[in-house]
Design goal:
The protein has 15 helices and twelve strands. Helices cover 39% and strands 14% of the residues. The chain is α/β, with parallel strands linked by helices and 400 residues long. Helix 8 links the parallel strand 5 and strand 6. The structure holds ligand LCS.
Length: 400
């Protein structure tokens, strides 16, 4: 039990202490990994009472587990939500939320620049069940308004978007959602609650791929949903129970550990990313840089209004297009050529052929993902070493 009044604690304190205090039974400082699939009932009546909801208690790890609960409790605090529910991946979280909100015949709206897996779920898998998506450019909210009809059940926005870092105005979008009584979901993976709290801006549900900054160390795949208690209870007791996309106790424990350093990691990611974005912006072999913290970013003003910082993701175009980009990716030494993001290690990848290969040519074009676009996830290494690494690799590109 924690002696701290967590409702009054500030963000960094919540990162360290938000999952609970010292274990009462053993004095263990950290939450134990409750690696158990099932939980014993004290009597037949006790078991029946838990099943019928008369008593609270653990039953089976697909429905709940103390280690998962510690992570969920902490994420609810950090996102300023009532409750949270952990999943085995970001995709499990996203698919479960959409299925909880939409049924056959319904549609939902999303932005048109999404993680490739999310785009594939929305545009290929869900239509097979007669749930249709309308992907629109939500940097202009008139497109969202125009797309709403009587069958629209959800607005789903990734902001900043993967990989172009396009920003949607959350507060304005929430006004549209509220007027039409449609829940607004924000994928907050890129910003993390350290830099952006969508629920405070009027969103109803927040989703994370916890694989990224929440875990932070590239050793866990996980997802989490934060929102109103009624919605989270329904998600757990109906949809997670039936669809089964749960997180393991070990992975929940890794996330609790990762969260302890979220605030300090995000500060360093941002510091490094801004330096690298500025270095790239003035490099003669780079034609364009996307980073919400640069005044040249098309939605910089919206980012400034709704974010407390701009995060650790940078995308850019190398002069010489795809071939030059490949040369850059093949010659870096500190950056690892790999997908995923948000790790302490710096990563580099090519969205059009990797994370966003689920987009066809027209979709890539409308999402603003060119063949020459390179995405970097800036880690917490020394910024000078990272700049030197990009510099030596860019030097190897011959534009003539
Ligand atoms: N949302 C965003 C914004 C993402 O970037 C990803 C994964 C997901 C959801 C899905 O989460 P997962 O199931 O992987 O935990 N993004 C990836 C990326 O850019 N590279 O590899 C995965």
């Amino acid at each position: 039990m924690s002696k701290i009044d967590l409702k009054k604690a500030h963000f960094s304190t919540l990162c360290v202490h938000g999952s609970g205090g010292v274990d009462e039974a053993t004095g263990a400082l950290g939450i134990p990994i409750y690696q158990s699939s099932t939980f014993a009932f004290k009597s037949a009546k006790h078991g029946a009472d838990i099943f019928s909801g008369v008593q609270q208690g653990y039953v089976y790890t697909r429905i709940g587990n103390p280690t998962q609960e510690a992570f969920e409790k902490e994420m609810a605090f950090l996102e300023a939500g009532e409750a949270a529910l952990a999943f085995g991946s970001g995709m499990a979280a996203i698919s479960t939320v959409v299925l909880a909100c939409c049924k056959a015949g319904d549609n939902f709206i999303s932005n048109n620049t999404l993680y490739g897996g999310t785009h594939s779920l929305f545009s290929e898998t869900l239509p097979n069940y007669n749930i249709k998506v309308k992907e629109v450019d939500s940097t202009d909210l008139q497109n969202v308004i125009d797309a709403i009809d009587e069958k629209t059940r959800l607005i789903y926005i990734e902001t900043p978007a993967n990989p172009t870092l396009a920003i949607t105005d959350i507060a304005e979008c929430s006004k549209i959602a509220k007027k039409n009584q449609i829940p607004l979901v924000i994928d907050n993976t890129f910003a993390t609650p350290y830099f952006q709290r969508p629920l405070k801006l009027g969103a109803d549900i927040v989703i994370h791929s916890a694989t990224k900054y929440i875990g932070g160390h590239g050793d866990t795949v996980a997802g989490v949903v934060i929102g109103k208690k009624d919605f989270i209870d329904k998600l757990r007791s109906n949809f997670l129970r039936d669809l089964g996309g749960i997180i393991s106790p070990l992975n929940a424990w890794l996330l609790v550990r990762g969260l302890k350093t979220l605030a300090v990691r995000m500060e360093r990611h941002q510091l490094n990313a801004l330096r690298i974005a500025k270095f790239l912006q003035f490099h003669p072999k780079i034609s364009k840089v996307w980073y919400p913290g640069l005044t040249t970013h098309p939605q910089h003003e919206t980012a400034k209004k709704q974010m407390l910082g701009y995060g650790g993701m940078v995308s850019f175009e190398v002069k010489g297009g795809r071939k030059a980009g490949e040369k850059l990716m093949n010659n870096v030494k500190i950056f690892t050529l790999a997908v995923s993001l948000g790790d302490v290690d710096s990563l580099i990848e090519h969205p059009a052929s990797m994370t966003h290969s689920t987009y066809n040519k027209e979709e890539l074009k409308s999402a603003g993902i060119s063949e020459g676009l390179v995405r970097v996830s800036i880690g917490i290494e020394d910024p000078k070493d990272l700049i030197d690494d990009l510099s030596q690799s860019l030097h190897k590109i011959n534009l003539h």
